[in-house]
Structures are given as C-alpha cells and as structure tokens.
Write a structure and sequence with these properties.
This protein has about 375 residues and is an alpha+beta fold. Helices cover about 35% and strands about 25% of the residues.
C-alpha cells in the first residue's frame, strides 16, 4: 500500500508543477488519508501534512506521534502541549523549502480555520487557494484499488437492502428495519455510514431521519442506505410498496425509472455534468412533476460519501474516466410518498458501470 501512496504523492507533485504550486497543506481529512494513509483523530491540536516539490512532512502533536508512526514513514515535526506548534511549524516550513515571500499555497478546504491561520501567520504574503486543481483533481478519478473497495462495499449494501425489504412486516418501525440493515453490515465486517428508512409520507422528505413510524398495509417504503467497507462507502436507494401499490405510485415509479435511464445514458467520458442532470430532469419535467424533483441528480463518491464531481444543473465540469458518482433522480409528493432510485456508477470508456447488482424494480411485499 505504501507504493500506492508514493504514486499519489508523485502525481500530486506533477499537479503542483502544472499549477505553479509551492506548497500543499492538508489537515486531518480524507485528503490527508488519500495521499498518505494517515487519518489521525482531529481535535484542537494542529496536525498538518505539508508537501512541497522536494519534501513532505507532518506537523505532529507528541500525543499522536507513536500511533501515527505505524501508518507512514514520512518525517514528523513534533510539538508538545507545553510548547505549542509554532516552532515545529517554522522548522517544517524551512525543511519544505517554501519561500517566505509571495509563495503559492494550496490549503485543505476541510481543515479547521485555526489551523489555516497558523499558515497565514507564518506566511503572511502567501497566495492561498483550495485543492480543486491539485489533490481534489487527482481524487476525482479512482484507481483499481479504490474501485475494488467501492464495488465490495456496494455488494454488501445490496445484501442489506434485500434483507430489509424481505424482512418487512406490519407493525414494525422504521428503526426496526434499520436494525436489520445494520446487522447485515456487521456480519460482513462493514460499518454503518448512514441508514434512512422512510414509510409512507416520510418518503417525501428527501433527507428523512429514520424514526418510530410504524409500517401499515398499503404503504410506500423508501430505503436509502450505505455502509463503509475497506475504508470506502456505498450509497443506494430502493423503493417499493407494502401491500398493493396504487396506480399513482406505479406511474410515478415508472417516471423515475425512466429518468435514471436517461441520466445513465447521458453520462459518458467528456459529458458535462449539467447535461447529465438535464437529461434526467427533463424526463420528470415532461411528465409534469418538475417542481417535485427537489434535489440534484447526483454526487461524487470516494473516500467521502459526497465529493466531486457533483451532477447539478449548473455544473460545467466535464466527466472523466474513473469518476464515481450517483444518478438518483426523485419525485417527492408531500403527504403521500417519495420515490428516489439511485445507482452509483464507475465511469469507463464505454460508459457507466453500475456498482450495485440489485435490480431497480419496484419491490412489492
């Protein structure tokens, strides 16, 4: 795995050269994890990874050092609570060779603000920007190791969703269904990323929080759930009906399914994310439900559950080979039900590979 991190570090330095970047500063985040394999506990003690064209090293609290050393061979500039991080950061910046004048620095946009101000205070003349054209750009295209982990996570998620729908019984609560899902995750060594079970009108809330609503006959069921396995998440939504579905439900389900198909067909290497959103959205608008499509069509997925590229109507981002993102249009009808069908796809030269093996058909129980 260290070879993987070295390759990523080499690729980052190429990006730095292309973007005239003197220094990349990462806090405890998925960016740090992706580039180094280090994912330290984030608290008020400054932890930062600084990467220059010729050096990479950590600003590291003494309390973290021994544990983190198990995960990286990169040098540490250690500071103690009694002394504070200022001197260690000064030494780290000197080792990195970062110019004290108008240096060009990339900052981790997810880093604590007080960490950022340590850099600003040390290099007051620096030109600052975020990671979009360096680490962020590299992370958008997943490698074979990431693909394998994402695929495995999605297959476990399929098993959990199947068990949840198969286990539906009248009188059970949304929390009872969530427990079924969590048990499947645990049995395969995965962790819960999130579980959103929505009965009936709760499905009209795009981000419903699983609660105590009880399942009754002739009720819509929507389950949006994901686990984390081998460090990577899954995310999938399936919908169905407990009892005999109404004509309206079947009609809306068919519209959403056609929207998914349109989004999948529009997503190819070089396609603009906004056009993919438009393709899915147009199906729903043409059916007269445009105002009830309340969200974007999709989001990227990698180490983070939500990350670039975002499949939004205003995005001009061109999709690239190796991108992983969701296609998840939905129709949300207040006080009745909501239907969202979601696939996570890996973009290949020939188009979208769906990571789930679970059909999108209406699940009637």
């Amino acid at each position: 795995m260290q070879d993987t991190y070295q390759k990523r570090l080499d690729a980052l330095r190429q990006k730095m050269a292309q973007s005239n970047t003197d220094l990349v500063v990462l806090g405890p985040s998925s960016h740090m994890n992706w580039i180094s394999g280090v994912n330290p506990h984030g608290d008020e003690r400054p932890v930062m990874l600084l990467i220059s064209p010729d050096y990479a090293g950590f600003l590291m609290p003494s309390l973290n050092a021994d544990s983190v050393r198990q995960h990286t061979d990169l040098p540490f500039h250690i500071w103690h609570d009694a002394d504070g991080p200022t001197e260690a950061l000064r030494d780290l910046l000197a080792a990195s060779g970062t110019p004290k004048g108008a240096s060009r620095i990339v900052l981790d946009e997810t880093m604590r603000t007080d960490f950022t101000f340590l850099i600003k205070d040390a290099l007051p003349e620096a030109q600052l920007r975020f990671t979009a054209d360096t680490v962020g750009d590299l992370r958008k295209s997943k490698d074979a190791t990431e693909y394998d982990a994402l695929k495995a996570s999605n297959i476990i998620n399929d098993l959990a969703l199947t068990a949840a729908f198969d286990g539906l019984k009248e009188g059970m609560s949304e929390r009872d269904v969530a427990a079924i899902i969590e048990a499947v995750y645990t049995s395969y060594g995965a962790q819960v990323e999130f579980i959103a079970v929505a009965f009936g009108a709760n499905g009209a809330f795009a981000h419903h929080h699983t609660g105590d609503t009880l399942l009754t006959q002739d009720t819509a069921v929507q389950i949006d759930t994901g686990c984390r396995y081998q460090g990577y998440p899954s995310d999938n939504t399936r919908c169905g009906w407990f009892g005999t579905p109404t004509a309206e439900y079947k009609q809306v389900f068919d519209i959403v399914e056609r929207a998914v198909q349109a989004g999948l067909a529009a997503a190819h290497v070089g396609a603009i994310a906004g056009e993919v959103d438009k393709a899915a959205r147009q199906v729903i608008e043409d059916a007269g439900y445009g105002p009830h499509f309340l969200s974007r069509t999709g989001h990227g997925l990698g180490l983070d559950l939500h990350e670039p590229p975002y499949i939004t109507s205003n995005s001009d981002v061109a999709l690239e080979m190796g991108n992983v993102f969701s296609i998840e249009p939905g129709i949300y009808l207040a006080d009745r039900f909501g239907i969202r069908l979601e696939e996570i796809v890996f973009l290949r030269a020939e188009g979208c590979e769906i990571l789930s093996d679970m059909p999108r058909e209406m699940l009637v129980r």
